[in-house]
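To whoever is covering the structure queue this week,

Two jobs came back overnight. Logging them here so there's a record in the thread.

Job A:
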Amino acid sequence: MNDVLLGGLNRHEADLAVDLCLDSILNGPDSKYPALQRTKWANVDRADWVRRLASQHTHAARDTQGTLLGVGSWCEKARSTAWLDLL
């Protein structure tokens, strides 16, 4: 298995992260959801997703060459509650 490096998402990577999320929705392996449902989920407000990735605590997984492999973000909703978003 190749090494995976974890760290914060850089602002200039937000568009790439959205592309990665959309590719995962549309082409993820072994999806239990029909193509029509995945297509509906992929119809997102791209600017909103970029804003959310930039404003939340977003972490990125990269290979050793720096290629973005995945993202996950979270934000605080209340004093002791967090919301996982855009995994």
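Job B:
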Amino acid sequence: MFDILKGTWTDRLLLLVSLVAIVVGWIMIQAYISSGPAMADIYHADTLVATYPLPQKGEPPIHLQVEGELGLSEIVIDEQGARIASSPCATQRCVLSGPHRHAGDMVACVPNRILIALRGHAESGFDAIVE
């Protein structure tokens, strides 16, 4: 029945320590991503192009264009979040995904090699029950 748990006590202890390390590492990474003010990092391929704070209510939106492999992608960062408003790619999945506002969210236009990665803590108008 427990044939999968064959091995010495050292093997089992090593497995347990590895699993605990993975869980602790995951928690630490999530804490790092969600710490600090809400920011949008914009990349072209593996190069960081710009970093902008997510505007709060009443602040003006940020509009910018980023040159990608296929052409210009228009990015809008406003109180709703960060999104790709237009892109020269064929499928337009990046445009259809809409605004993203939570830490760890990413918006990617894969054909144009544009990526928006969100980090930090964004205040939301929703509570845990609505989300």
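Note for Job B: The CA atoms of residues 40 and 118 lie 5 Å apart.

Please reply-all if you pick these up so we don't duplicate work.
Q.
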